[in-house]
Amino acid sequence: MEKPKKNTYLSFYLGPTLFGANVKYILEVLRNEQITDIPRSADFIKGIINFRGEIVTVVDFFKKLNMPGGTGKSQKIIIVFELPDKNKSIKIGVEADKVRKVFEMPDNQLKPVPEFGKYYNPEYLTGVAETSDGFVMLFNIEKVFSENEVQIMNVIQTKETKK
Is 11 inside any structural domain? Predict the structure, then answer.
């Protein structure tokens, strides 16, 4: 009998809610990073940071996911993701309140995504993991950003790099 496939996830808080993302897309977790505003950008774009000499767009997940609130804390962290984009990849920073832990979960133990009403697009989630910390909603990070949004962030990064 074949062993169920396991994936490794990083769990993190957005407000009081625990989310997770597959670590295969995560490059690094940054603390106390200075974010530079981008005038007239999409409302979910927080700004840009310098990450290892590259310009990376930072996204406010509260706005992107249509979540109420946000803590307004200045001590947020930025999780840097690398997403495939046609012939190359693009790096995107996502603001979160704090990291919880890294954990493994067999695919066959993921629970289906429940209906959340108007706040969450269920397409953004691959499932729900039940851990010792409670339920962790797992992002399908490739679906959170539309192809058009990835292109917008790519243009921002290209323009800012050329300055």
Answer: yes
H/E stretch holding 132: none
Handedness of CA 89, 93, 96, 100 (dihedral sign): positive
pLDDT in tens, 37-57: 988 888 888 999 999 999 999
User: Higher-confidence residue: 138 or 157?
Assistant: 138
DSSP type of residue 111: B
Rounded CA-CA distance 59/147 in Å is: 15
Query: Would residue 1 count as lying in a domain?
Result: no
Structural domains counted in the chain: 1
Task: Output the pLDDT for position 53.
Answer: 92
At residue 94's C-alpha, the angle toward residues 88 and 99, to 5°, is: 120
Q: Which residues touch 94 (CB under 8 Å, ≥6 apart)?
A: 58, 59, 61, 78, 79, 80, 81
Task: Write out the residue range of the structural domain in which residue 87 sits.
Answer: 6-162
Write the CATH number for 72.
2.40.50.180
pTM score, whole prediction: 0.84
Tokens read off for 94: 């996502």
